[in-house]
Amino acid sequence: MGSLTPTQLFIQISIATILGGSLAYLLWKQRQQAKSLKPERVKTEEPVKTLPLQLQAYERLILLVDRIALPHVISRNNQQGIGLQDMQFLLVNAIKQEYEHNVTQQIYVTTEAWEAVRNLKEQNIHIINQVASYLPPDGSGTDLNKHLLEMIVNNPKVSLHNVVSEVLSYEAKKLMK
Questions:
Q1: Distance (Å, rounded) from C-alpha 113 to C-alpha 106?
Q2: Which string of b and e fits 23-32 if b means at least 16 CB within 10 Å?
Q3: How confident is the model at residue 13 (pLDDT cuts 50, 70, 90)?
C-alpha cells in the first residue's frame, strides 16, 4: 500500500469519524427513545436468573472498551526500537485478542451494545492501519504511536471509546431499575 498524502489521510480519518459519529448519534437516539417509552419491567423468574450475568457482561464490555481505547493499547504495547510494521501488528493484534477474549459476552447484552463494541474495535484497527499506511515503510513504531496519539489529541472525536462506555453503562443501569 503506497503512502497517503496528508489530505488523503485526513479524508479517510474523516470518513471513519463520520461513521463513528453516526453510530454515536444512533445510540444516543435509541437512548432518548428508551427514556421516553420507559416500559414497565415484567417481573418473572427468568430475568432474575440472568440479571447478574447480564450486569457482569456489561461490566466486562466496559473494561474491554477501555482496554481497546487507542491511548491505552499504545501505552501497554509501546516498545522502543521496533519497526513500524511490527508496532502496527502489535497494536492491531492486541485489540483483536481483547475483543476475542470477550466475544461470548454478546449473548448477554443488546445487539446495539455489541455492535457499538464491534464498531469501536473495527474503527480503532482502521485508524491504526490508515496512519501506518501514511508513514514511510521504514518508519519506527515510535513514529506510529506518536502520530496516533497526536491525531487523537488534535481530533478527540476520532476516539469513540467514551461514547461506547456511556452507552454500555446506560444499558446496565437500565437493567437495574
A1: 8
A2: bbeebeebbe
A3: confident
